[in-house]
Amino acid sequence: MTFRCWKCDATIDLPAGGRVGSRDACRRCDSDLHSCRNCDFYDPSKNNQCSEPQAEWQRDKEAGNYCDYFRPAVGPPVDLAAAKGHTRAAPAVSDAKKKFDSLFKL
Length: 106
Known about the structure:
17% of the residues lie in helices and 6% in strands.
């Protein structure tokens, strides 16, 4: 089984048991793998940004932790575009600004 690092999108091969250690780090970017951002339960729209209601609140979602409910997210990272500095709303804002500016040009 494999999953992807939330920060650099590197493919991580999981051991046979599918467990990620609390001190494991990405081989490419050295970010913590056992973190909220790499968890299947990570959901920015939920309370505490976690869809597991019994999980304890973690202050830093990018740092390694000891959460017992951690499950590696095998799909793409939740907001990889935002992590790389891209935002989906930026083109719409840019287009709106261009239209607004065009109203006042002579």
